Amino acid sequence: MGEPTDPDVDLHVPVRRPGSGRTQIPVAAVVALGGAIGASARYGASLLWPTAAGGLPWTTLGVNAVGCAVIGVFMVVISEVWVAHRLVRPFFGTGVLGGFTTFSTYAVDIQQLVDGGRARTGLAYLGLTLLLALVAVWSAAWATRRIVTWRQA
Amino acid sequence: MVIIGAVVGAPTRYLTDMAVQKRHDTVFPWGTFAVNVAGCLILGVLTGAVSEEAASDSVRLLIGTGFCGTLTTYSTFSYETMRLAEAAARFFAAANVIASVGAGLGAAFAGVALAEAAWA
């Protein structure tokens, strides 16, 4: 299994070990570009499906679950199958998916629900996001590995 | 506004993760933990400021949706948790979930309280 723990920065792989200074500029640039795309998609989703005041933030929940499923597929493919250009992983994994999903809105939305006297909705949202995110990343990675093994057999 | 915030937030996450990993080369993903908690604190302060009408809607989009949204990540957090669990580092996987959610929530509550104290 060649997949790393941290999909963004893996200092244990010499090729991935970031050099200093100038070599980091193209990586930071594609991360920024990917982040802009991911954040725009997340903002677009929040405009398309606005969350009712005091309600469970389904849109953020969906965005985070989808982002976790996609990173599960992406990391298996890029680690086991596809020898991609060195900027593909920073662009898509770190930039697009990192920008699409969000932890800060998740935490502050829980705070707002609890503060507004909706502690039960806040707790349900807390647990449901965690559960769906972990199930999404795990099942997506598992299914992708199965397909990869089956195709290589 | 969202795009300007995102263009700054995403590389800040990448560079912070790298800087933290260089200093703390451990099994525990401190880099992602650090950006997530920091983002929760900043968004908490901003949300408190918005509710006290001390911050405008465009500032909310710039710093909240754009910067904090891209500075923090759920996809990397869940992927790292899965990899820790698979690497038989179950303790670290559970610790990552509990510490990230606990510290993130703590930072969000502290941020809102700070802002309300400052602008009330």
UniProtKB/TrEMBL annotation, chain A:
Could you list the residue ranges that cross the membrane?
56-78, 90-108, 123-143
Record GO terms (molecular function): fluoride channel activity; metal ion binding
Please summarize the record's notes on activators and inhibitors of this protein.
Answer: Na(+) is not transported, but it plays an essential structural role and its presence is essential for fluoride channel function.
GO BP, sorted A to Z? cellular detoxification of fluoride
Primary role: Fluoride-specific ion channel. Important for reducing fluoride concentration in the cell, thus reducing its toxicity.
Family, similarity comment: Belongs to the fluoride channel Fluc/FEX (TC 1.A.43) family.
Q: What is the name listed in the Swiss-Prot or TrEMBL entry for this protein?
A: Fluoride-specific ion channel FluC
Q: Which organism is it from?
A: Streptomyces sulfonofaciens
